[in-house]
Design a protein that fits this description.
Blueprint (H helix, E strand, L loop, with lengths): L10 H16 L12 E6 L5 H12 L3 E6 L10 H11 L2 E5 L3 H10 L4 E3 L7 H15 L6 E5 L4 H13 L2 E5 L11 E3 L2 H4 L5 E4 L11 H8 L6 H4 L3 E4 L11 H4 L6 H19 L4
Parallel strand pairs: 1-2, 1-3, 3-4, 5-6, 5-8, 6-7, 8-9
The chain binds phosphoric acid mono(formamide)ester (CP) and norvaline.
């Protein structure tokens, strides 16, 4: 079993993982030795704060070991990824990779003898969505009947959120400028005010994802009306996967408000991924 996109996971797998993550969060000591002797390889083609540290800390808390590997210090950029991953998967028990092009993570999964985790590609960020669903479950105690509104760029985080919400029965509406639609199929709008009507949660992400730096000037202009400010947020809770660019996609006032649950989301990366590691290694 891999986690490349939530499209491949069924509803029961997702719900079970969220429940297990809650148990792990409640009593982490119970799991201190479960992955003793196991190794996770973490391959990073792009930078990271949360993903790297939460996976590394999580693996240590489960009694295992995590290797941080900067892609550029390996042969991955020069050699055939198929050959490299066949070797890596003979050394370790699970592989996690953050890549630019989504195809690379698919090739890894096809050629690895061990489970592969997508730690963000240009198309998806499933680990983020698992933590987000855990955060929503903690706050609301349920999924059914909730509405999440995405405002901004229809990017990798948005695609995974659409898939995750759909699977667990959350209604999701998406407001993006023309030309920036997600590849997954949501309740799609261009009007941000309409999209957030009746929302329990308003979610946004950076307007400039890693690899899009050259488009910065254009994107800042196109996305300006999609900033999440106090007026747009209304009474909803605010979510953001982070890193956030204050004053662009979100105001300080929103990010620092009591409606903002972004640091719970960030913390829940740890708990959800510990459950994920246990699931992929057959321990739950
Ligand atoms: N949300 C998230 O994936 O953060 P990092 O880029 O810091 O890992
Ligand atoms: N959409 C952002 C998410 C970073 C965690 C990016 O791809 O850079």
């Amino acid at each position: 079993m891999d986690l490349i996109t939530l499209k491949d996971w069924d509803k029961e797998d997702i719900l079970h993982l969220i429940d297990e993550a809650m148990l792990i969060k409640e009593d982490p000591e119970k799991y201190y030795k479960v992955l003793k002797g196991k190794t996770l390889a973490m391959l990073f083609e792009k930078t990271s704060t949360r993903t790297r540290i939460s996976f590394e800390a999580g693996m240590a808390q489960l009694g295992g070991h995590a290797l941080f590997i900067d892609w550029s210090s390996t042969q991955l950029g020069k050699a055939d990824i198929k050959d490299e991953i066949k070797c890596i998967s003979r050394y370790v028990d699970v592989i996690m990779a953050r890549v630019y092009g989504h195809k690379k993570i698919e090739v890894m999964a096809e050629n690895s003898s061990k489970p592969v985790i997508n730690a963000l590609s240009d198309r998806y960020h499933p680990c983020q969505t698992l933590a987000d669903l855990l955060t929503i479950k903690e706050r609301f105690g349920k999924f059914k009947g909730l509405k999440v509104s995405w405002v901004g760029d229809g990017n990798n985080v948005c695609n995974s959120l659409i898939l995750g919400c759909r699977k667990v029965g959350i209604k999701i509406s998406v407001a993006v400028p023309k030309g920036y639609e997600p590849i997954e199929n949501p309740d799609l709008l261009t009007d941000e005010v309409k999209a957030v009507k009746g929302a329990d949660v308003v979610y946004t992400d950076t307007w400039i994802s890693m690899g899009q730096e050259k488009e910065k000037a254009k994107r800042l202009k196109v996305f300006r009306p999609y900033q999440v400010n106090k007026k747009l947020l209304g009474k909803a809770l605010f979510m953001h996967n982070l890193p956030a660019y204050r004053g662009y996609e979100v105001t300080d006032e929103v990010l620092d408000s009591s409606q903002s649950i972004v640091f719970d989301q960030a913390e829940n990366r740890l708990h959800a991924q510990k459950a994920l590691l246990l699931r992929l290694m057959g321990k739950i």
